[in-house]
Amino acid sequence: MAVDRLDSISSLCPHLIGNGQLRRMTPTHSTESERRTRKSRIDPRLRAWGWEIVPFDPSRPLSGYHRHAIEEYPTANGPADYALLVGGKLRLKDDLPRNW
User: What average pLDDT does this structure show over 17-34?
Assistant: First the structure.
């Protein structure tokens, strides 16, 4: 059975959900770069929620990741900002919404 994206995110990062809606993490400056936003706003929150953030390493098998957020995970549509893995299994692979 497929799980919709909101349910996937809410089970992996419950702090991102408020009143059934994704909480928004809007940058204060519209000129803030995507990389700076990830490093200054998203990465600290993922770490606070217990995720270890690591760069993508094609030589490391996915089974070696327990609760990791892999940066720049390759997909058919280009790299995803993060891939969330639990117990060596990919749980979420997508760019985070642009309006967080």
Answer: 54
